């Protein structure tokens, strides 16, 4: 039996998410062969993800965890981490590959009515299927569910312009670096770092949840006196 979703679903995003997750269900075997269920020791993304996770003090939610490769990897490094994915097939694959690591069936918008708070959100190529409106909604949901000073690491397909593109599983969107930074800052995040991937179209961005008036010390909000 599937684990109940974290919460109810923002209706506007539900139909799109169903289409995307059913496409991932259909392509589960091919995507699993491509991504693997574990992280290769030479994976160039390790540096960015491990360094980000080391700076998170508390629970991490791996959103769109797929095969669970990063969830399992971070759990193996001692982080408290939960994986969540709207594709039932991927949740099954991840649970089989990483027994002992918790995985739930849900999409990013399902966090909207949850009362759980997280110290970090990893969204590794999992918000790529959201159009501009759904991405902005998702980022506000993440901002709302993040502890103050908590952080998000989000990877995306980057290009000179924001536009849809053909992705083998489901339609996806690429974003300009400026557009993704603006969407994060409109949602209330402060962008800390932009990382370039191993090819021009791969990028990742780190941002933290700040409170208006926060003073940052080494990229983190200083303790508040009120
Ligand atoms: C390209 S895979 C990446 C998987 C994993 N993050 C990794 O790097 O191995 C994209 C994943 O995002 C999930 N996904 C798609 N739409 C999502 C949504 N709205 N919320 C959360 N996850 C989503 C898919 O089911 C799929 O498992």
UniProtKB/TrEMBL annotation:
Keyword set, alphabetical order: Methyltransferase, Transferase
Domain of life: Bacteria
Domain Methyltransferase, chain residue ranges per copy: 60-150
Keyword presence, Transferase: yes
CDD domains for this protein: AdoMet_MTases (cd02440)
GO biological process: methylation
SUPFAM superfamilies attached to this UniProt entry: S-adenosyl-L-methionine-dependent methyltransferases
Single GO term (MF): methyltransferase activity
Gene3D superfamilies hit by this protein: Vaccinia Virus protein VP39 (3.40.50.150)
Pfam families, sorted: Methyltransf_25
PANTHER family in alphabetical order: TRANS-ACONITATE 2-METHYLTRANSFERASE, TRANS-ACONITATE 2-METHYLTRANSFERASE-RELATED
Name of this protein: Methyltransferase domain-containing protein
């Amino acid at each position: 039996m599937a684990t109940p979703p974290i919460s109810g679903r923002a209706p506007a995003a539900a139909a799109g998410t169903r289409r995307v997750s059913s496409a991932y269900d259909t392509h589960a075997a091919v995507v699993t062969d491509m991504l693997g269920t574990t992280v290769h020791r030479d994976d160039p993304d390790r540096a960015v993800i491990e360094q980000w996770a080391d700076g998170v003090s508390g629970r991490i939610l791996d959103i769109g965890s797929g095969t669970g490769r990063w969830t399992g990897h971070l759990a193996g490094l001692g982080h408290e981490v939960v994986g969540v994915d709207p594709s039932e097939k991927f949740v099954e694959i991840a649970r089989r590959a990483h027994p002992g690591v918790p995985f739930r069936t849900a999409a990013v918008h399902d966090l909207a009515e949850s009362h759980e708070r997280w110290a970090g959100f990893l969204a590794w190529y999992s918000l790529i299927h959201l159009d501009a409106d759904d991405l902005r909604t998702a980022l506000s949901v993440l901002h709302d569910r993040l502890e103050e000073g908590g952080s998000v690491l989000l990877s995306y397909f980057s290009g000179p312009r924001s536009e849809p593109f053909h992705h083998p599983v489901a339609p996806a969107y690429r974003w300009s670096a400026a557009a993704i930074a603006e969407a994060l800052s409109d949602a209330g995040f402060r962008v800390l770092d932009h990382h370039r991937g191993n090819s021009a179209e791969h990028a990742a961005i780190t941002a933290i949840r700040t409170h208006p008036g926060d003073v940052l010390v080494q990229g983190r909000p200083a303790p508040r006196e009120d």
